[in-house]
Design goal:
The structure holds 2 protein chains of 2 kinds. Chain A has 17 helices and 24 strands. Chain A is an alpha/beta fold. Chain A has 3 domains: 116 residues, Nucleotidyltransferase, domain 5 (2-Layer Sandwich), CATH 3.30.420; 148 residues, Flavodoxin domain (Rossmann fold, 3-Layer(aba) Sandwich), CATH 3.40.50.360; 325 residues, no CATH class. In chain A, the strands form 4 sheets. In chain A, strands 15-14-13-16-17-18-24-21 form an 8-stranded mixed β-sheet, with helices on both faces. In chain A, strands 1, 2, 3, 4, 10, 11 and 12 form a 7-stranded mixed β-sheet that branches. In chain A, strands 6-5-7-8-9 form a 5-stranded parallel β-sheet, sandwiched between helices. Chain A is globular and about 70 Å long. In chain A, 58% of the residues are buried. About 1% of the residues of chain A have low confidence. The N terminus of chain B is likely disordered. In chain B, strand 10 and strand 11 form a beta hairpin. Chain B has 3 domains: 170 residues, Glucose Oxidase, domain 1 (3-Layer(bba) Sandwich), CATH 3.50.30; 71 residues, OB fold (Dihydrolipoamide Acetyltransferase, E2P) (Beta Barrel), CATH 2.40.50; 60 residues, SH3 type barrels. Chain B has 4 helices and 30 strands. Classes of the chains: A alpha/beta, B mainly beta.
C-alpha cells in the first residue's frame, strides 16, 4: 500500500463562480482517508485579477487560516507540494469549469445517429455542445458554415459514417468545416483542433481537406457499426486537446497546470486538470458500478447544470451525461427565467411576490453572479428558480439519454436519412435507485430537507428512491482524485461526501377519488410496527436516521405503482437518512399544482411545514394574494 | 491571509489604461508604434472571407463527380461574375442540349471536390476596419493583428450595458445621484452627447433619448421588464454589445431604481464637457467584460486619490459597497474578516465580514455580497 505515503491531499475545483478547496488527510486513528477542511473563494478568471490562481490561493488560504498550517509556498507562488516531509501537501489535484468550460461543435452524417453519438462523446468528456452539424439537419451548406463561424467553438468533433459506410457525406462535412475556417476563441494564429472520429475509410479524404488548415487529429470511429458506440478514444482525445489548446489559453491556467501533481520517487509527476463535469461523471459511474444500481446525479452550477445517469439498455448499464449550457444559478439565472417562464418560477414561491420586483432581483443576481442570498426570502426565491433549472435539465437529459437510434433495422445509412423514428429514453424514474444532488444551491442549502424537497419537486422520482446530496460539494474533487488515488477518493466519498437524505416513497399512476394512494407498513429498528397511509395531495415525514433500517411493506391502491406494477405490493428494506422517509402523495404522471394562487400557496406552505424546510416566519412573508 | 479577493468595478479618477484593438482575422496595421491617435483613427484593416455558396455540380449535370473537372469552365481561384457559366455538359453529339451551370454569385470559384461533386463559390471579401476607440498613444503593434493603445484617462466601469462603442461629450442631466432621468431632462442639446443621470431611467424616457439623438445614457438603474420591451425578447445570457438600439445604455448599479454611487456620480460630474469613449458591451461569463466610460485626460492631470492597492485584494479598512439585500448600495469600511463561517438570516453558514457604515453601525454581511470600491 505504497500510496498511503500520501497523507495530505489538496484538491480544488475552479467553478465559474466559486473556487472550492478541500483538504484530505489520512487518519491513523480512523484507519482511512477523511475530509479535514474546506475553503472557498470567488473565482478570479475575470477582472480585476484575470488569473485563476488568485482564487486558488485564496481558497487554499482559507484552509490555512482554519487549520493553522501552511500549504502554500512562502511567497504564495503556488501550492507547496512536498517531496517527503515538511510543510505542504503530498498531492495537489484540480478540476475546472471556469473560462466558460469547453465549448464544442460536433458533426455527424445523420443527426439522430452519428450526430448524437458525437454529442454523447463530447458531453461525456465534459464539453458544452453548442451545435450539431449534420448532413440532414435541414440547413443549407452556407448556413452551416455561418453557424460554425459565428459560434467559434474551442474544438470540433467530426464523425459520420460507420466503418465501410458513406464517404461522400463525411467529406462534405469536412468541406463545410474547411469553408467556415473558424478561429479559436483564445489566441489569434492558433489552429483550431478538429477531431475526426468517423468512417475509417474517409480518414484520408478528411486529411486532404483539413490537414493543412486545422489541427487535425484522427481517432477510431465513435460509431464503427450501427449497433455499437465506441466513445472512449474520442473522449480521451477531447480531454487531451482541452488541456493543450483551450485551458492553456485561459487566464492563469498555464500556471495552474504546472502546480497540479506530486512527487513519485523524487520525480515530479504532473496530474492534468480535469473538466469539472468529466470528474463528477467518473464518480457517478463508479458508484453505479460498485453498487450495481441505477443512479442519477445532478450538479447545478452557476453557468450550467449537468445531469448524469446510469440506466440499463438491453440489460447493460449505460452512462449518460448531458449539460444544459445555459441553465444555472448565477451567470445563467436569467436564462432559467427566460426558458421556464415567469409563471413556472413563481409557482414554487410559497408567498406572493411582485413580478417586476422578482425580475429585477433575478437580473441583479445575474450581473453580480457571486452574491448569495443573505435573507430567507431571497433564499426561498433562489430555491424556486433552482427547481425550474433542475426540471428543465432533466427534460433535456431524457431527450438525449436514449437507446441507439437506427439499430435493429436492416437498412443502409443512406436509407436512414428517411428514418424519423427516435430511440426511447433510458431514463425511467421508477427504476431509479439513487438520486444525488450536487452544486451550491443543493449542497449548501441551510436545511437538508430543502435539498430533498427541491430534488423531489424537480425530478419527481417514482416508487422508492433514495435521495442523497454531495455534503459540501466535493464530487468534482473526488472525481479527479479517483484517477490518481481511487482508495482515498472512495473512502472520502462514502464517509464524508455522500449524505443520504432518506427514501422518497411516491406511488405513480393516475388516480381520481381514492382515500389513499398506498398503505405503508413499517417495522422500525426498535421493533415497533406501525402503518401509515400515503394520502392524496399530502406529504408526510417519518424519522429514520442515517444508518438505520426499517422493513417495509407498501400496498399501493388499485392502478398505482410502487415499482412492482400497478396495485402490486412492494416489500423490502428502507434505509434512513438525515431527513427521514418522505411519503409523497402528490401524484405522478401527472404532478399538478393548483392554478389558483391562494390554493397553491397554501399547499406549498403545508408541504414545507411537513418537511420543516423553512423557519416558521416564512409563513408571513410577501402576503398571500 | 487577512485579506480576500473580491470582484469590484473600477471607478478611477485618473488611470493609465491600455486597450487592445485587434482584428478578427490577420490583416494590416496602418499606424506606427508611438503614434498619437484619435478615437476615430483607423488603426488596422483586413478582409473577412466572403460568404460561401456550395452546390453539387455533379448532381446538377447528372454526371459522376470524377467526370466534372473537364466540364468546368473556371479554374480554382478564378474570379466569377453573377450568372456567369461555370460548368457545361457535353450535350448530345457534343453540340445539342448542353446543360449549363451558372454562378449564382459574384466572387471566386474556390474549389471543386471530385469525391462529392461539390463546388464551393465564395463571395468577395468583406472589408473590416477597426479604429482606436480612445484618444491615446500606440504603445504596441501586434504584427498583422492590431495595436495596443494607451490612454491617460478617467475610467469608470458599469455593471451592465447594451449597445456598442460610441463617443460623445459628457453632459450631466441630473443634479444628484438619487434623481431620476425624466422626460423633461432630455433636451435638444443632448444630441450627440453621453448623458449622465441619477438613479433610474424608464423605457419611455429612453425612447425619447433615442429620438433626440443621444449617443449614450449612463444611469444607476433600469427595470428588467423595460429591458425586455427594449430588446423585444427576454435576455437569457448576458452577452451584449451588438444591439442596434440607436444609443448605448450603461447601468452603474443594476436593475430597479438604484442610486448611482456618489463617487461615480461626482467623478462624472467633474468631467462634464469632456469627450468620452463609451462601450456598453457586457459579457457576464468567464473572462467577464463590463461596460465602460473612458474619458481621456491631458498628461498633466494627476490622480488625487488613486490607490496603489493590489487589484481585488480586500483587507481591514477597505472601502466596500454592499451589492445585495438587505444593505444593497450601502457603502462602508471592512471592520473585521473573521475566518470562521457564520450563520446569516437565511440560516446559511457562510464566510462573512463585518462592515461599518458611515453612521458607525456595524453589520455582518456575506463576503460574497460586497464589492471593493477602488478610489
Amino acid at each position: 500500500m505504497g500510496q498511503k505515503k500520501l497523507t495530505t491531499i489538496l484538491a480544488t475545483d475552479c467553478g465559474s463562480t466559486t473556487t472550492k478547496s478541500i483538504l484530505i488527510e489520512y487518519s491513523e486513528e480512523a484507519g482511512r482517508y477523511r475530509l479535514a477542511r474546506r475553503g472557498e473563494a470567488p473565482t478570479t478568471v475575470e477582472a480585476p485579477a484575470e488569473d485563476v490562481t488568485k482564487g486558488v490561493l485564496n481558497a487554499v488560504g482559507e484552509i490555512e487560516d482554519l487549520e493553522g498550517r501552511s500549504f502554500l509556498k512562502p511567497d504564495e507562488s503556488g501550492v507547496n507540494v512536498r517531496d517527503g516531509s515538511g510543510d505542504g501537501v503530498d498531492l495537489y489535484v484540480s478540476t475546472s469549469s471556469a473560462g466558460g468550460g469547453l465549448q464544442m461543435t460536433v458533426a455527424g452524417v445523420v443527426k439522430s445517429m452519428t450526430g448524437e453519438s458525437a454529442q454523447r462523446a463530447a458531453l461525456g468528456a465534459g464539453a458544452i455542445v453548442m451545435d450539431i452539424v449534420a448532413s440532414n439537419d435541414r440547413r443549407l451548406p452556407h448556413e452551416k458554415v455561418e453557424d460554425i463561424r459565428r459560434l467559434r467553438p474551442d474544438m470540433i468533433l467530426l464523425s459520420g459514417g460507420i466503418d465501410g459506410g458513406t464517404i461522400d457525406h463525411v467529406v462534405e462535412l469536412a468541406e463545410i468545416v474547411k469553408a467556415a475556417d473558424p478561429k479559436p476563441r483564445f489566441g489569434v494564429g492558433f489552429k483550431l483542433p478538429v477531431i475526426f472520429a468517423g468512417n475509417k475509410d474517409a480518414a484520408g479524404a478528411v486529411r486532404d481537406e483539413l490537414g493543412s488548415t486545422m489541427e487535425l487529429k484522427i481517432v477510431d470511429n465513435l460509431r464503427p457499426v450501427l449497433e455499437r458506440e465506441n466513445l472512449g478514444p474520442a473522449r480521451d482525445l477531447i480531454h487531451e486537446l482541452f488541456m493543450e489548446h483551450v485551458m492553456a489559453q485561459a487566464p492563469g491556467y498555464a500556471k495552474l497546470m504546472e502546480w497540479t501533481g506530486r512527487y513519485e520517487d523524487g520525480k515530479w509527476t504532473n496530474v492534468p486538470i480535469m473538466p469539472t463535469p468529466g470528474a463528477v461523471g467518473k464518480l457517478i459511474e463508479r458508484v453505479a458500478r460498485l453498487e450495481d444500481i441505477h443512479v442519477m446525479g445532478v450538479d447545478i452550477g452557476g453557468a450550467t447544470t449537468d445531469v448524469f445517469s446510469v440506466f440499463d439498455d438491453n440489460e447493460e448499464p449505460v452512462f449518460n451525461r448531458t449539460v444544459s449550457a445555459n441553465l444555472g444559478m448565477s451567470y445563467s439565472i436569467s436564462n432559467v427565467l427566460a426558458s421556464a417562464g415567469m409563471e413556472n418560477v413563481m409557482r414554487w414561491v410559497p408567498f406572493h411576490v411582485d413580478e417586476a420586483d422578482l425580475r429585477n432581483r433575478i437580473r441583479n443576481k445575474m450581473i453580480r453572479p457571486t452574491t448569495i442570498p443573505q435573507e430567507l426570502e431571497e433564499l426561498i426565491i433562489e430555491q424556486a428558480i433552482a427547481r425550474e433549472a433542475l426540471r428543465l435539465s432533466l427534460v433535456q437529459h431524457k431527450d438525449l439519454a436514449t437507446g441507439l437510434k437506427g439499430v435493429a433495422q436492416e437498412r443502409t445509412i443512406g436509407d436512414a436519412f428517411e428514418q424519423s423514428q427516435t430511440g426511447a429514453t433510458l431514463v425511467n424514474m421508477m427504476d431509479l435507485d439513487l438520486l444525488i444532488g450536487s452544486g451550491g444551491v443543493l449542497s449548501h442549502a441551510p436545511r437538508r430537507s430543502q435539498t430533498a424537497l427541491m430534488l423531489i419537486d424537480s425530478f419527481l422520482p417514482e416508487g422508492n428512491t433514495m435521495l442523497a446530496v454531495d455534503s459540501i460539494f466535493m464530487m468534482p474533487h473526488l472525481g479527479v482524485l479517483s484517477e490518481v488515488h481511487p482508495e482515498a477518493a472512495v473512502e472520502v466519498f462514502n464517509n464524508d461526501c455522500l449524505i443520504k437524505l432518506g427514501p422518497c416513497l411516491a406511488p405513480a399512476g393516475a388516480f381520481k377519488k381514492v382515500a389513499h394512494l398506498a398503505t405503508v407498513s413499517l417495522t422500525m429498528p426498535d421493533g415497533k410496527v406501525f402503518e401509515e397511509k400515503i394520502l392524496p395531495g399530502k406529504m408526510k415525514l417519518i424519522k429514520l436516521g442515517v444508518g438505520e433500517k426499517a422493513e417495509a411493506v407498501i400496498t399501493p391502491s388499485k392502478g398505482l405503482d410502487m415499482g412492482n406494477g400497478p396495485g402490486e405490493i412492494w416489500q423490502g428494506t428502507l434505509e434512513g437518512g438525515i431527513v427521514g422517509i418522505i411519503l409523497d402523495g402528490r401524484g405522478r404522471r401527472p404532478f399538478v399544482l393548483p392554478e389558483k394562487d391562494k390554493e397553491r400557496v397554501e399547499l406549498l406552505q403545508e408541504w414545507s411545514q411537513t418537511l420543516d424546510t423553512y423557519p416558521e416566519r416564512f409563513l408571513t412573508m410577501g402576503g398571500v394574494k | 491571509m487577512a485579506f480576500a479577493y473580491t470582484p469590484g468595478l473600477r471607478v478611477a479618477d485618473v488611470a493609465d489604461i491600455s486597450k487592445t484593438r485587434r482584428l478578427p482575422l490577420k490583416g494590416e496595421v496602418v499606424v506606427e508604434l508611438g503614434a498619437e491617435i484619435k478615437a476615430d483613427t483607423v488603426v488596422a484593416r483586413t478582409e473577412l472571407p466572403g460568404n460561401v455558396k456550395m452546390f453539387n455540380i455533379a448532381n446538377m449535370l447528372g454526371v459522376p463527380p470524377s467526370d466534372i473537372p473537364e466540364l468546368l469552365l473556371k479554374k480554382e481561384g478564378e474570379p466569377i461574375k453573377a450568372d456567369e457559366p461555370i460548368a457545361q455538359s457535353k450535350g448530345l453529339f457534343g453540340k445539342y442540349f448542353k446543360n449549363t451551370i451558372k454562378s449564382p454569385i459574384k466572387g471566386f470559384f474556390e474549389s471543386f471536390n471530385e469525391i462529392t461533386g461539390q463546388a464551393v463559390l465564395r463571395e468577395p471579401p468583406i472589408p473590416v476596419e477597426i479604429d482606436g476607440y480612445v484618444n491615446g498613444k500606440v504603445t504596441e503593434v501586434l504584427e498583422g493583428e492590431g495595436v495596443v493603445v494607451e490612454t491617460h484617462c478617467t475610467f469608470v466601469q458599469g455593471i451592465f450595458g447594451i449597445g456598442g462603442e460610441v463617443r460623445g461629450e459628457i453632459k450631466m442631466v441630473c443634479s444628484s445621484p438619487t434623481e431620476e432621468i425624466t422626460e423633461d431632462k432630455i433636451t435638444p442639446d443632448c444630441k450627440g452627447k453621453v448623458i449622465i443621470g441619477g438613479n433610474y431611467i424608464s423605457h419611455a424616457v429612453l425612447k425619447k433619448a433615442v429620438s433626440a439623438g443621444v449617443n449614450a445614457v449612463v444611469v444607476g438603474g433600469f427595470d428588467d421588464s423595460d429591458l425586455k420591451d427594449l430588446l423585444g425578447f427576454d435576455l437569457g445570457v448576458a452577452i451584449t454589445g451588438h444591439e442596434k438600439l440607436g444609443l448605448t445604455l450603461i447601468l452603474t448599479e443594476g436593475f430597479g431604481k438604484m442610486t448611482m454611487a456618489a463617487g461615480t456620480f461626482e467623478l462624472l460630474a467633474a468631467r462634464e464637457g469632456m469627450y468620452a469613449s463609451v462601450n456598453g458591451a457586457t459579457q457576464i461569463r468567464a473572462g467577464v467584460m463590463r461596460p465602460e466610460i473612458v474619458i481621456p485626460l491631458s498628461a498633466e492631470i494627476k490622480s488625487a486619490t488613486t490607490s496603489s492597492k493590489q487589484a481585488g485584494a480586500m483587507d481591514i479598512g477597505s472601502s466596500v459597497r454592499c451589492i445585495r439585500a438587505p444593505f444593497f448600495g450601502k457603502i462602508g469600511l471592512v471592520a473585521a474578516l473573521p475566518p470562521e463561517l457564520n450563520v446569516v438570516d437565511s440560516e446559511a453558514k457562510v464566510r462573512v465580514l463585518e462592515v461599518e457604515f458611515s453612521d458607525g453601525k456595524k453589520f455582518t454581511v456575506p463576503r460574497a455580497n460586497v464589492e471593493l470600491i477602488e478610489k
